[in-house]
Write a structure and sequence with these properties.
The complex is a heterotrimer of chains A (268), B (934) and C (192).
Chain A lengths: L22 E5 L7 E7 L2 E12 L12 E8 L15 H15 L11 H10 L15 E11 L4 H16 L7 E9 L2 E4 L3 H4 L5 E7 L4 E7 L5 H37 L2
Chain B lengths: L2 E11 L1 E11 L26 E5 L1 H6 L1 H5 L6 E4 H10 L1 H12 L5 E4 L17 H20 L4 E5 L3 H9 L3 E3 L1 H8 L2 H4 L33 H9 L3 E9 L2 E9 L4 E6 H5 L7 E6 L25 E2 L30 E8 L4 E6 L12 E7 L7 E5 L2 H4 L2 E9 L8 E10 L3 H11 L9 H4 L11 H5 L3 E3 L5 E5 L8 E7 L5 E8 L10 H9 L3 E2 L4 E2 L4 H7 L7 E11 L5 E18 H9 L6 H23 L9 E5 L6 E6 L4 H24 L5 E4 L5 H13 L9 H10 L6 H11 L6 E4 L28 H13 L12 H36 L2 E11 L2 E6 L4 E6 L10 E4 L4 E4 L5 E3 L3 E12 L2 E8 L1
Parallel strand pairs in B: 3-4, 3-6, 4-5, 6-7, 16-18, 19-26, 20-26
Antiparallel strand pairs in B: 1-2, 8-9, 8-11, 9-10, 11-13, 12-33, 14-15, 14-17, 15-16, 17-18, 21-22, 22-25, 23-24, 25-26, 27-28, 29-30, 31-32, 31-37, 32-33, 34-35, 35-36, 37-38
Helix pairs in contact in B: 3-4, 12-24, 18-19, 19-23
Chain C lengths: L14 E2 L4 E4 L3 E3 L3 E3 L5 E4 L3 E6 L10 E7 L12 E9 L3 E9 L2 E12 L13 H4 L5 E8 L6 E4 L6 E6 L5 E3 L3 H10 L1
The chains are: A alpha+beta (268), B alpha+beta (934), C mainly beta (192).
Cofactor (chain B): Mg(2+)
Keywords (chain B): Exonuclease, Exosome, Hydrolase, Magnesium, Nuclease, Nucleus, RNA-binding, rRNA processing
Family (chain B): Belongs to the RNR ribonuclease family.
Chain lengths: 268, 934, 192
């Protein structure tokens, strides 16, 4: 099948190879959560909710003086065309949960408990910590729960989940080193394509999902389950990074707009 | 820039699923007219001064593609909605349209109306997809008109009456194809216009001259819905319709549902199906299953009969055995157990254009010069085609190309239209051209883009090449080549050096084509498309441009050339001690012909180094060959014919069988060894994407004709394995020297052809090469003339770490596609070569009626098929005058002989007979070779 | 607000998002909502909010400014018109009662928000006969609805609905007084 029309250069849905789908982000969609966001990439729609920082509920889970980030990914039964009941915690969702958790852990500075916050920052300033682990200076262990649910799936759910989680974390006021954004890119019909939709995703070609810290230019996620020659891979990855940056730019806009409105409400 | 619009689509995937897809509408799609002031004109394709821009409707593209391909039609806008519809309806037309749109000489522009924000239309409630698409076309036409203003006329070309009416109502100028072409004032273009008989066109536009035969000749095709349900419940069977190459009134449909081939006899049962169509077949009641008619002559009033042709070289070329296994007890009436059927519907047409000539007819009077003529295809499987022409007198003695348009059940013949003229009938160039076209061989000169990829000439070995650490300097070796005389594309050379330990170092050096043909270049694309060089009797159609084929890559003597070498250390017993591969630079010291090489080896007085090397190589080759045969390799024979061509007139002076010498076998042996070594190496490195060559074992049914013949002459053949077969072929020695060869020829034609494949597509047990009895085989040794070898060179270079593996190898389906194309091209090249030989045979015998000896290879009820060893041809000899079916000859199937009733005159299979060969012309413009018994 | 007193200068008041560069660590100390990047040089934001720079006292040992990001979540929830809040009465006057907002919906606020319940907003009927002193006492916990952003100092609150009003109060004798809607109270108390 031809995924890029050789005559017009358009993809099946009318995008050019370097075009992203339309993205939209909205903050504060779950009132109960400490932070929440909705993120859409084309027809992929994902909701994320953050609970915490709160005290570790299950003491058994806390380990090694380490802040606990938990993530639960799930797909709504109505998210795809066929409404099959999918079991909770199947391999795929466990894997994606893990991927999102690791990606987000890489950017969350720590839970900042209101009272120990200052001490902790001091601590951070003086002793630089390892990438993922933040040792807490005190007895109190906290956890952050990230729930992401796919409401509508049309390819690139993993990226959309990460973007939604970022927005939600920022909304929850959890300190982060940077905004993590993610975007996928693939290689079909001998062309690198940005932001694959479901049809392109299921074409079976190589598909690279990249997550980056936009300002600091660090890669926090890189996944590909196919073989690709190095030079092509670099092109594809570069394309995905461009996509991530565009998303980061958009997310910043959403956050700033949201903050402006809040400030406005507070009457400052 | 992006605007999103989702639309809802329901598809059937067992269940009804709602599919929601995004559809982006954009404002950065340009109109393609250079005169446009709003759009970016850098990508515009239409001509500068276009006063009229044509927008074509889907039905116009589908039916009038031949007209569109004519250079007189230009400045055409192809809408993406049209493109999409064409793609869904007819892929071959789509590919032709695509070629038009990408051809830089033609002014065809693709406008993505479906993604343009102003021309996208949403399906309205109650509107059929067809109406919606028609509306989209009109909206786009309207947009163009208002976009480009009054100076440019936008003309919508449609044959759909409703669409045209609406367009005119909406203020768009619209015309039918006929009236537009007429307005151009070029009468010859009108021949290209397909006159559709459907009600789409206003009757005033079409002058229906067709003889009004209202008799229904064929039964109506069943509607698609009925066919689908019939297929589902097993009443009908789906399959590809294949017409017997040797009898156009008999066809086979391979059906998976009944696991056998359904035979279809006669035009009525074939019900307008063409060769290659996908059809639905209904089985006839069992009592109508004909017993296999082993008549040569066909049943219809059309006097078509089996031609003399070149003896087939494999089962793929040979006619399928018509008669099934006959019950040995002769009391049982010969009821066939082979299902017979009739076509009830055509699922997919395989119509394309055909080469041939017009059936001679008198010039009709009056009628404004419009004449109806019957076209007779060169391909006997194709029925006659009725065409309409205004240039009858020009066409009568020409080879022309005709395309099929329709075939309704009222007319005996399909109707079609003239496409173009090739040339004078009987002219050798015309006929050669015809056989190239028939076999889909691209003989056009290479394009400038392709030629631009060539290195600057004159080319010589540069110091950079030598400085390359991956390239070994082997110029000091005594390398020489042995090829057929006059060979200019020398792609292999050898060397043989005795080592101190008594072993030999043997090197096979293959032209390093991949050093010049880089992946992804136009040169590479072209070579990949052509797939192979084609050798005709009088000319060669190269895969690579001439400078590469004959000079830069060719390993000529006394020049330094780049090579890819396989170097073995071999014991005197020809056991390979070690193998290594390297890119190299060589300098051949001699380019010998087989005859020269043979003469040198045979002349015991010569003791020069090259001759010694030759003798050493020959000794090794003999051992290798023996070992290979012991392992079970088949020594097969095919009657290869060689022409002596007059250098000035290019007419054949003499023909004879190609003689195989020891030197040929010596070279062959080392090439085989090199190919096997390379196959092992690349498969080891790239188990999933190596290009290999396999030869499937023949099935029992395929060997059936051979076994029957063997049984008739009391020969016991063991076909349980290639080894057993090889051994029993060796034992089959008759009283005359040609007997063994004849048996081998018969055996060869029971085999299928070897094919290329990608190692990822099959399991390792299927890699086996039956004929060579090799577990692995590939083609490495002829990269100048075969693209498969180019691929294998790249694989080997990547396996050695010299070069990177091109990305194409990562793409499984694409690699499979390449392998399929190579097989297709390879086969076509062979067919073309054979056709060329047949053509020249005919030319040769035109002036020389000859008496010669022939061998009977097949017994029929009214005659037999003979094989003429001297000329390698095969053809029928009739015992009964044509049309006389009440034969007094009796066929004895078990003993494969035919006896005249009441006499002792009988003919046995493989018997030698004397025949007379003469070219006769029973139908004008169709000369053929006739064989008669003396 | 306390922070606002000592601010001013470079890029102050600008909105930032996590990861954004706030300055160089040789000139800046990362305060709340900011961190020093692993390279030890740049100071970056870790929250979304307003950038605030506090300049050091002229005699301080460290002459670097402190840069902070004041995120909205740092203030906790923010009352908005229409949201139900839990307040503690601080002062009762003849026509108004002022109160501190403690919770917005179910979430505790992190900063001090003041609200005012005006006489006409205490109940829906007979609004002119309301006696503020009989309605509220300082220390009462009251469930109220935010009517509007009010004036610069305080939100306007209302208790003029059945489900609104005092939920917990202390008598002068320090006895616990139960409100008229026991059910709501227990629920709300748990939220508090």
């Amino acid at each position: 099948m031809e995924y890029v029309d050789s005559l017009t250069g358009f993809r099946l849905d009318g995008r050019r190879p370097n075009d992203m789908r339309q993205i939209r982000g909205e903050i504060g969609v779950v009132a109960k959560a400490d932070g929440s966001a909705l993120f859409e990439m084309g027809n992929t729609k994902v909701i994320a909710a953050i609970y915490g920082p709160r005290e570790v509920q299950n003491k058994g889970q806390q380990a090694n003086n380490q802040a606990l980030v938990r993530c639960e990914y799930s797909m709504a039964n109505f998210s795809t065309g066929d409404r099959t009941r999918r079991p909770k915690g199947d391999r795929r969702s466990t894997e994606i949960s893990l991927v999102i958790r690791q990606t987000m852990e890489a950017c969350i500075l720590t839970h900042l408990m209101p009272h120990s916050q200052v001490i902790l920052i001091e601590f951070l300033v003086h002793i630089l910590l390892k990438f993922f682990m933040y040792f807490l200076p005190k007895i109190c262990f906290l956890q952050i729960d990230i729930f992401v649910q796919v409401l509508q799936a049309d390819g690139g759910t993993r990226s959309a989940c990460i973007n939604a989680a970022t927005l939600a974390l920022a909304d929850a006021g959890i300190p982060m080193r940077d905004i993590v954004t993610s975007c996928s890119a693939g290689y079909l019909s001998s062309t690198p394509l940005l932001d694959l939709n479901y049809i392109e995703d299921s074409a079976g070609g190589p598909d690279v999902t990249v997550g980056i810290l936009a300002k600091t230019d660090k890669v926090t996620l890189l996944q590909m389950d196919a073989k690709l020659p190095m030079d092509i891979f670099e092109n594809v990855m570069q394309l995905a990074i461009e996509g991530c940056k565009a998303i980061a730019h958009y997310i910043r806009g959403v956050l700033l707009e949201n903050t402006k409105q809040l400030e406005c409400r507070r009457g400052i | 820039m992006l605007q999103s619009k989702s639309f809802v689509k329901k598809t059937k995937q067992g269940r009804v699923v709602k599919v929601v897809r995004e559809h982006y509408l954009r404002d950065d799609i340009y109109c393609g007219a250079p005169s446009c002031k709003v759009c970016d004109t850098s990508a515009s394709r239409l001509s500068n001064s276009a006063s009229t821009i044509l927008i074509v409707d889907t039905n116009v593209v589908l039916h009038q593609i031949d007209l569109l391909e004519n250079p007189a039609i230009d400045d055409v806008v192809v809408l993406s909605v049209v493109l999409e519809e064409v793609r869904n309806k007819n892929l071959s037309v789509f590919n032709r349209l695509k070629a038009l749109c990408t051809n830089s000489l033609r002014k065809f522009f693709v406008f993505s109306n479906e993604h343009h924000k102003d021309t996208y239309v949403k399906e309205m409630v109650g509107e059929s997809p067809n109406d919606r698409n028609d509306r989209a076309i009109r909206v786009a036409a309207h947009w163009y008109q208002s976009h480009l203003g009054e100076n440019t006329q936008i003309l919508l070309i449609t044959n759909d009456r409703e669409n045209k009416r609406r367009a005119v109502e909406e203020g768009i100028s619209a015309e039918t194809v006929e009236s537009y072409v007429r307005s151009l004032g070029k009468p010859d273009l009108l021949d290209l216009v397909v006159l559709s008989s459907s009600a789409d066109v206003n009757m005033e536009d079409v002058e229906d001259h067709r003889p009004s035969k209202k008799k229904v000749i064929y039964s109506e095709h069943k509607p698609m819905s009925e066919i689908t349900s019939g297929l589902l419940c097993g009443i009908y069977h789906q399959g590809k319709f294949r017409v017997n190459r040797y009898n156009p009134f008999e066809a086979y449909v391979g059906s998976e549902s009944i696991g056998d081939e359904i035979v279809i006899y006669g035009r009525a049962n074939m019900n307008r199906a063409f060769d290659g169509d996908i059809v639905a077949v209904e089985l006839l009641p069992q009592d109508q299953w004909h017993d296999g008619k082993s008549m040569i002559i066909t049943e219809d009033e059309d006097d078509e009969e089996e031609d003399v042709h070149l003896a087939p070289s494999s089962a793929d070329d040979a006619p399928r055995s018509v008669n099934p296994v006959q019950p040995t007890t002769e009391s049982v009436p010969p009821v066939s157990n082979r299902p017979a059927g009739r076509v009830v519907g055509i699922i997919k047409r395989n119509w394309h254009s055909y080469c041939g000539s017009l059936e001679p007819m008198p010039m009709p009077a009056g009628n404004a010069g419009v004449a109806h003529a019957l076209f007779v295809s060169k391909d006997r499987r194709i029925p006659k085609i009725r065409i309409q022409t205004r240039q009858l007198e020009n066409l009568l003695d020409k080879r022309i190309i005709v395309a099929v348009d329709s075939w309704d059940c009222l007319s005996r013949y399909p109707s079609g239209h003239y496409v173009r003229t090739i040339g004078q009938i009987g002219d050798r160039d015309t006929e050669s051209e015809v056989l190239l076209i028939e076999n889909d061989i691209n003989s056009r000169p290479f394009s400038t883009q392709v030629l631009a990829c060539l290195p600057p000439l004159p080319w010589s070995l540069s110091s950079e090449d030598l400085a390359n650490p991956n390239r070994e300097d082997l110029r000091h070796l005594r390398v020489f080549s042995v090829d057929p005389p006059g060979c200019k594309d020398i792609d292999d050379a050898l060397h043989c050096k005795p080592l101190g330990n008594g072993n030999f170092e043997v090197g096979v050096h293959i032209a390093d084509v991949t050093n010049f043909v880089l992946p992804g270049t136009p040169l590479d694309e072209e070579a990949s498309q052509r797939g192979t060089s084609v050798y005709l009797v009088e000319r060669r159609i190269d895969m690579l441009p001439k400078p590469l084929t004959e000079d830069i890559c060719s390993l000529r003597s006394d020049v330094e050339r780049l090579a890819f070498s396989v170097i073995w250390e071999m014991t005197p017993d020809a056991e390979i001690v070690s193998t290594r591969f390297t890119k190299s630079a060589i300098k051949s010291c001699a380019a010998l012909s087989y005859v020269e090489a043979q003469a040198r080896m045979d002349d015991s007085r010569l003791i020069d180094p090259v001759t010694t090397d030759l003798r050493n190589l020959n000794t090794l080759a003999k051992i290798m060959r023996l070992r290979r045969i012991k392992r079970g390799a088949l020594t097969l024979a095919s009657p290869e014919v060689k022409f002596q061509i007059d250098t000035e007139t290019h007419d054949p002076l003499d023909i004879g069988m190609y003689q195989i010498r020891e030197a040929n076998q010596m070279i062959e042996e080392f090439m085989l060894a090199a190919n096997i070594s390379v196959a092992e190496k690349i498969l080891n490195h790239f188990p999933l994407c190596s290009l290999l060559r396999r030869h499937p074992s023949p099935t029992k049914e395929m060997l059936e004709p051979l076994l029957r013949t063997a049984a008739a002459i009391g020969l016991d053949l063991d076909v349980s394995s290639s080894k057993a077969l090889a051994d029993s072929l060796d034992r089959a020695v008759g009283e005359d020297p040609y007997f063994n060869k004849l048996i081998r020829i018969l055996a060869t034609r029971c085999m299928t052809q070897a094919v290329y494949f990608s190692s990822g597509d099959l399991s390792p047990s299927e890699f086996y090469h039956y004929g060579l009895a090799a577990l692995l085989y590939t083609h490495f040794t002829s990269p100048i003339r075969r693209y498969a070898d180019v691929i294998v060179h790249r694989l080997l270079a990547a396996a050695l770490g010299i070069a990177k593996l091109p990305p194409i190898f990562q793409d499984g389906p694409q690699l499979t596609g390449i392998a399929d194309n190579l097989n297709y091209r390879h086969r076509n090249a062979q067919m073309a070569s054979r056709a060329s030989v047949e053509l020249h045979t005919l030319i040769y015998f035109r002036k020389r009626p000859t008496d010669t000896e022939a061998r009977i290879v097949k017994i029929k009820s009214n005659g037999f098929i003979v094989f003429v060893p001297k000329f390698g041809i095969e053809g029928p000899v009739y015992l009964v005058p044509k049309g006389n079916n009440g034969s007094d000859w009796v066929v004895d199937e078990a003993h494969q002989r035919v006896t005249k009733v009441g006499t002792n005159i009988r003919y046995n299979i493989l018997q030698t007979v004397k025949i007379h060969m003469e070219v006769v012309e029973p139908q004008p413009n169709r000369p053929k070779l006739q064989l008669t018994l003396i | 607000m306390g922070v606002m007193a000592a601010v001013g200068g470079d890029g102050d008041g600008e909105l930032v998002t996590p990861g954004e560069l706030l300055g160089d660590s040789s000139k800046m100390i990362a305060g709340r909502g900011a961190y020093v990047a692993p390279n030890g040089r740049s100071v970056r934001a870790s929250l979304t909010g307003i950038r605030r720079v506090t300049h050091p006292q002229p005699d301080a040992a460290d002459q670097r400014s402190i840069v902070e990001v004041v995120g909205h979540k740092a203030h906790g929830a923010v009352p908005q018109p229409g949201s139900v809040v839990i307040v503690r009465i601080t002062k009762v006057m003849a026509r108004t009662a002022s109160a501190d907002i403690m919770c917005v919906e179910s979430k505790a606020v992190r900063e001090k928000f003041t609200g005012i319940i005006r006489q006409q907003d205490v109940r829906a009927t007979e609004i002119d006969k309301v006696d503020m002193y009989l309605s509220f006492r300082p220390g009462d916990i009251v469930r109220a609805l935010v009517l509007s952003l009010g004036d610069a100092r305080a939100y306007y609150l209302s208790t003029a609905k059945n489900e609104l009003g005092v939920v917990s109060a202390q008598s002068i004798a320090a006895n616990h007084i139960v409100s008229r809607q026991l059910l709501t109270v227990t629920v709300i108390l748990r939220y508090c």
